[in-house]
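Schema walk-through. Below, the input block comes first and the output block second. Nothing else is stored per chain. Lengths vary across the set, and this one has 263 residues.
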Amino acid sequence: MKGRVLIIAGSDSGGGAGIQADIKAVTAMGAFAATAITALTAQNTLGVHGILPVPVPFIRQQMEVVLSDIGADALKTGMLADIPVIEAVAEEISRAAAGIPLVADPVMVAKGGQRLLEERAVEALKRVLLPLSAVITPNLPEAEVLSGREIRSPEEMEAAAEAMLTLGVPAVLMKGGHLPGDVVVDLLVTPEGTTRFEAPRLKTRHTHGTGCTLASAIAAGLAQGMALPDAVARARDYVRAAMATAPGLGAGHGPLNHAARWG
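--- output ---
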């Protein structure tokens, strides 16, 4: 086991997304997962049915005790919910984890449509957390909110990512799964240029937790010393394999097979 990842995110009682998916993905990559849970959700493949916030001082304490003892080689953030949580997490990262690469997944809305980030918290996310990241991993609806741009093509994806670089973010992985077409295009955009990833679209309803899984797999790669493009490529291969071999659970957006073999 190589690489330590501290995951700061919400819990998914259905096991398909959130902290549960994060732990499974990091473990599948051969790294060690520690957690700071920001919220509990009552959730299944049909949606989020309830949210119980974790008190901010306890979120801080979880981060502090993990970082002071176990340590971390990479961080990953997911559901942060509101301004006090965002500010507290950013403060703890700056205080106790400066220089450790952060993969920030700007989780805003669950697959079933439930908001997981208050609308008024978006500016706080942009101002205090995203500039601390090594890479952010928005899907297209999230990227439209963060960039203030409509995105209807790979070219508009790249333009939106370049706009997000002005927030102080060194790299943006634009996930293109929301665009129509038989080929899914993802773009890793940095000030040095753009790396394009393409793959045939998988025809499946089992997509619950794909964003969490991808971001955590990338974080595991960074924790293991991989270059960002290589970590992204490995994570994408893993997520595709996990989708292709999904166990077929639930009546809605089903979970992935996090034990999938890939490569």
